[in-house]
Amino acid sequence: MAIPFRSGFVSIIGRPNAGKSTLLNSLVGEKLAIVTPKPQTTRTRIQGLLNVKAAKERPAAQIVFIDTPGVHRPDSRLNRKMLQEIHEALESRDVVLLIVDASEKFGSGDQQALELIKQHMDEQPDRGRVFLLLNKIDIIPKQHLLPLIEEWNRRHEFQEIIPVSARTGAGLDVLLDKIIQALPQGPRYFPEDQVTDQPERFLAAEIIREQILRKTGKEVPYSIAVMVERYEELEKLIRIAATIYCEREGQKGIIIGKRGEHLKEMGTAARLELERLLGKKVFLELHVKVKPGWRESQAFLEDLDWRTS
Predict the structure, then answer these.
(1) Number of other CB atoms surrounding residue 244 within 10 Å
(2) Cα(252)–Cα(291) distance, rounded to whole angstroms?
(3) Which of 11, 37, 44, 94 maximizes the CB count within 10 A of its CB?
(4) CA 283, 34, 243, 308 torsion: positive or negative?
(5) What is the topology classification, in CATH, of domain 200-304?
(6) Structure confidence by residue, pLDDT tens digits, 114-156
(7) CA separation for the pair 12, 213 (Å, rounded)
(8) Which residue, among 269, 6, 12, 298, has the nearest Cα to 164 in the 3D structure?
């Protein structure tokens, strides 16, 4: 007798740089979320879809993973919107994955993430289970793992504590098995060949922003936004025109660089990544504009969000 199909929503929560986006990309097998060494890279919820075929004792399933911004103290309208994204991800979940960096000491971000999860579990005690993922086990001594598990066991009663490496894939098979066991019977929410609900325009804007994050320092990464103004898909070519917004003239100069060399370098890197992702040649046109205080503009933030624009 076949085991009934299972499906559900799995929210990934954690402090900045814990490895949430790397985990999402590794589980889905596609680059859906940009990854950089800088904190607060992810600004919105990102859904990744994984269809799992039935195995010996495992049912077929569709898992909707939800990557979220890193948990932090909000100091702008943008950051408050990012925190709201986390709350909404916690409201619509069957499983919560709290991911922590096993190579770092327990900090305020971990504490805040744990408090958020406890708050939502208290409000909806029958909705979902909480798994703790001890990430980056590939860079810590093995003898540190057991004391770390015991330490976290004292903080909360997790349904599962699973050591993983989002970067190498260690422990992810175990994680998938545990998730599927925890999911309810349900329908397939998305077509089997779909890997995300995000439009390609949004993915293009994120790839461009990733290159700026990687190639600029100090305050510039947190003061920029990217908006795709035109996305035209032809038979053999995709034409993309995007505007990079920053808050000050000095930041614009840094992004463009001497004789435009910095912007050209970032544009080339973004174009190559987009061609790999989209499977077509890409013509990419970039412009830089100054928009003071955009992080506090409700209208501008809504224009950036593909779900409301």
Answers:
(1) 23
(2) 10
(3) 11
(4) positive
(5) GMP Synthetase; Chain A, domain 3 (3.30.300)
(6) 998 888 877 776 667 899 999 999 999 999 999 999 999 999 9
(7) 22
(8) 12
